[in-house]
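> run fold Lipoprotein
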Amino acid sequence: MLRLATKLLAIAMLTANTACSRLPPPWVPPAGEARPYRGMPTGLAFSPDGNRLAITFATTRRSPVGPPFVVHHDGFVIVDAQDLRTVAVQDATPGSIQAVALSDDGGRLLALWRCHGGARGSGNCDEDGVFEHRVGEPGRILLLRESRGSDGRLHALSYDGTGRAVALAAATCRYIHGMGGQCSDYRLLAADHQDATAPRELGSWPVHFATSAPPQLGRDGTVRLYGNGSEMLLRVGEAARILRSGERWLGLVGRHSAVGAGGRVVVAAETMDLSEPRPKDRLVVVRPGPGATSSVLPVTEFDADIGHVAMSADGARAAFIATPLEGTDPQPALHIVDLSDSGNPAVRRTDILARHGLGRTMHATRMTTDELLSRLRALLDARRLSDVEAVGTTLGLRPVLDLPLTDGQGWRFVGELSPAGQEVLLALRTDWSNVGQSVARLYMSLGGVAGPCLTTEAVARVFGEPIENDPPYTAPPGWPPRQPRWSMAYRTAGTSVGVSFGRGYCAWALSLNQAFRR
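> ok
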């Protein structure tokens, strides 16, 4: 009887293992036309009068040299903010645009370009610095070369009232993910091509300030810094001073906000009910006044995630990008807001992003969020994460690189989940803590460039609740939380899963690890 029971148990275990080993059929992209795709929108900037608007975008491509990592290819589009016609287009080139500014007539654009990884030395990205692009003219002009030392990192750009390009530099900056930077020793520099390596210093301030939003450069040469519920003013020839502190509206000035009219108008995205797992955003207009006289006017509420807010220097026009929270194919849309001193602001939803192929992905029909997560779960349950061929066919990956291993370590396979450039890195490495055992690691850099959008709810539907010791998300001061956690983590015997959200609604990275024996 004992022998029979043992035999039946073995058969049951074998049947269970066989069932777990089954993978879904290979994923084949559904039939559907690919729409034009230029990249993911990453930033906005108005000309001082609000008549023209620059939209920066980014896409990722394989590094032509060095390790098989993705590198930024950025570009920009300039449109007329009134009739929405296209003024200029700069196609994606190697490098990353960190900040932009438009001239009075919208005919010149300042861009802070930085090279990353394999982008350096690959054609147009040979050095970091401030470049000027002129509408209708090819190429770009280097105005100010960025120092690689700690004393010359650039943070903001602008044209002043005379049309001169200026840049703000700071030393000893320490950045915290999603929270801005803590910098000291600010310097305002004149950016011109006469001597790009030795710019003329217009002013300096030996202060330390933790920022929660990009610095605001005024046309009068002033600089406004926001952070920790305070507003600091830097004016040439004067010492730095705190203008306001402790007022409620200052907590709204963060990454998704803009300041205009010399600090007299602020536009910001505000998250509504923070207790909701998928909180809605609304746009608010703040008109700071002395003491408690500041007004906060809600403009409109969206069932969407608002980001990339910009405003003209005169405070008369603003723009923002909103991405829907629902749907299998959430695509961002640009909205333009006409502000007035009296009456309600007028909001216009435009098709500019769709017209220029700026969105999450180039395919309207592709793998859904639930299907992607279910297929990843199936690979783990079948313990096939170390099987390069199984991973490729299950996820529908298009192989990009297949590299040989060096001493059992290194990248083994690089694939693309979609032609939009989303790369999946599969690594096999030796686990020295357990002799004879290795670990397969699959890393997906989602980043919002190609989608799909992985939410906390979608992850929980497939993987269940995360481990109990994962700390809840705690927002920094002035930063509304957009997820209940920084990340979601799962661990079982020989397997771990990590999903990283940062402050975004969609996950920006996913990592799977599974031990196996060779």
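The chain is about 10% helix and 45% strand.
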